[in-house]
C-alpha cells in the first residue's frame, strides 16, 4: 500500500467514525424525544438516522477490508469491497425507507393526527446544525481521500440536514394547529430515505459493473496528447475499484523511436496521470504511428 493510500484510508476512516458518533447521539435523542413529544415526523427522522449508523459502520468495515493487500484470489486487491459496502448500505436504507413510508402512510390514513410538543421542533433544528457540521467535514475528507463510500455518506449527511430542517418546520406548523402536517412530513421523510438509497445503489452498481465517466476520460486524453512524442491515443479504458482508478491505454508513437525513448514516454504519461488526476495504476501499450 502506498503512502498516499494510507493517508486516504486514515481520512476516510476518520469521516466514518465521526458519522457513527454523530448519528448514534442524534438517533437516540430523536427517537426518545419523538415518542415523548408525540411527533411521528421526528421519530421517523430518528429511524432514518438509525440506518445511517448502520451504513457508517458498513462504510468503516468496507474501508478496512479494502486495505487488505492483493492475494492469490484477489490479484487486483480488495478495493471493490468499498463499493460493495455502499451497495449493502443502500439496500438497508431501502428497507427502512419502505418501513417508514408504509407505517407513516397507514397512520395518516387512519387519521392519527396528534399535536406534537414544540420540544420536537427544537431537537430537529439542533440536529440539522450537527449534521451540517458533519457533512462539511465528511465532504472535505471524501474529496481528499477520493473515497466513493465516504462521498456517498457525505451525500446522506447533506440529505439529513434538509430532512431535519423540514421535520422541525413541520412540527412547528403542527403545534400551530396543523396537526396533519407532522404525519405528512413523516411520509416525506420515508420518500427521501428511498430516494437517497436508490441514488447510492445506482452509483455503487455503476462502479461494480466497471462503469466509468466519459468526461474524466476526455480530460485524460487532452492531458496525454499534450505530452511530446505521443502521436495519438488509439484506445483508453478506465474503471474504478473503491477509491482507486485504473487506466488501460494504447498510444501511437514514431515507429523509428527506440525502446528506451518509448518507455520514457510511457513513464511520463504514468507519472503525469498519477500526479494530476490521482490515477492509482496506468497500463500503457505502445503501437507504431501509421
Automatic annotation (TrEMBL):
The chain crosses the membrane at residues 12-37, 49-66, 87-106, 118-138, 159-178, 184-201. It holds the Pfam family Cation_efflux. GO terms for molecular function: monoatomic cation transmembrane transporter activity. It comes from the Bacteria. The keyword Membrane applies. Belongs to the cation diffusion facilitator (CDF) transporter (TC 2.A.4) family. This is Cation transporter.
Amino acid at each position: 500500500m502506498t503512502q498516499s493510500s494510507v493517508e486516504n484510508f486514515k481520512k476516510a476512516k476518520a469521516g466514518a467514525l465521526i458519522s457513527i458518533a454523530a448519528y448514534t447521539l442524534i438517533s437516540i435523542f430523536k427517537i426518545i424525544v419523538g415518542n415523548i413529544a408525540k411527533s411521528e415526523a421526528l421519530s421517523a427522522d430518528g429511524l432514518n438516522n438509525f440506518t445511517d449508523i448502520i451504513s457508517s459502520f458498513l462504510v468503516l468495515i468496507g474501508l478496512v477490508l479494502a486495505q487488505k493487500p492483493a492475494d492469490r484470489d484477489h490479484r487486483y486487491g480488495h478495493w471493490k469491497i468499498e463499493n460493495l459496502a455502499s451497495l449493502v448500505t443502500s439496500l438497508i436504507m431501502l428497507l427502512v425507507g419502505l418501513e417508514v413510508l408504509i407505517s407513516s402512510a397507514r397512520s395518516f390514513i387512519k387519521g392519527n393526527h396528534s399535536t406534537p410538543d414544540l420540544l420536537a421542533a427544537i431537537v430537529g433544528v439542533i440536529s440539522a446544525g450537527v449534521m451540517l457540521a458533519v457533512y462539511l467535514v465528511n465532504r472535505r475528507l471524501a474529496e481528499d481521500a477520493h473515497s466513493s463510500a465516504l462521498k456517498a455518506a457525505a451525500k446522506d449527511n447533506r440529505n439529513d440536514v434538509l430532512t431535519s430542517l423540514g421535520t422541525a418546520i413541520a412540527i412547528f406548523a403542527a403545534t400551530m394547529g396543523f396537526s396533519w402536517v407532522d404525519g405528512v412530513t413523516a411520509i416525506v421523510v420515508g420518500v427521501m430515505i428511498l430516494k437517497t438509497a436508490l441514488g447510492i445503489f445506482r452509483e455503487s452498481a455503476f462502479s461494480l459493473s466497471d462503469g466509468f465517466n466519459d468526461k474524466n476520460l476526455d480530460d485524460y486524453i487532452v492531458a496525454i496528447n499534450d505530452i511530446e512524442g505521443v502521436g495519438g491515443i488509439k484506445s483508453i479504458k478506465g474503471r474504478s475499484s473503491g477509491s482507486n482508478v485504473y487506466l488501460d491505454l494504447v498510444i501511437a508513437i514514431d515507429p523509428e523511436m527506440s525502446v528506451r525513448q518509448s518507455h520514457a514516454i510511457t513513464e511520463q504519461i504514468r507519472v503525469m496521470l498519477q500526479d494530476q488526476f490521482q490515477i492509482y495504476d496506468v497500463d500503457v501499450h505502445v503501437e507504431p504511428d501509421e
